[in-house]
Amino acid sequence: MGLFSKKKILVVEDSESLSKAVLFKLKASGFKVLNASSYDEAVSYLEKHKSITAVWLDHWLHGKKTGLDVLKYIKASDTLKDIPVFVVSSSGDEWSKMYEEVGVTKYFVKSDFLMSTILKEIQSYLDRTG
After folding, report:
1. H helix intervals, the chain
2. What's the pTM value of the predicted model, to 2 decimals?
3. In CATH, which superfamily holds the domain spanning 8-129?
4. How confident is the prediction along the chain (130 residues), in pLDDT tens digits per residue?
């Protein structure tokens, strides 16, 4: 059994192929995983599953709203605001600054990091914070 056996992560990603790869890696690491591809799905999971430990969030999502809208929703909620949010996106500096202003835990540009590196950083963060 993996290190994250009691941790649940919500993956909010519009790319089906990337989402499948992320879900596979997270499950192999012992995470319980939920998957959403739009703002509405993400908010629904956040409201129904109070045990979410972290969020893997893409900027571009299905529908009119973006990952930034999801982050704003999380940070505006008294019950959700402390959930760490890791943005993993193909969009660079301009967006990362906007996410940092709202309170993202960490922003990764997909082309700059291997998935294994991102997962190790998320693991390290969760290990440090409980």
Report:
1. 16-28, 39-48, 67-76, 93-102, 115-129
2. 0.93
3. Response regulator (3.40.50.2300)
4. 344 457 999 999 999 999 999 999 999 988 999 999 999 999 999 999 989 999 999 999 999 999 999 999 999 999 999 999 999 998 887 899 999 999 999 999 989 999 999 999 999 999 898 7
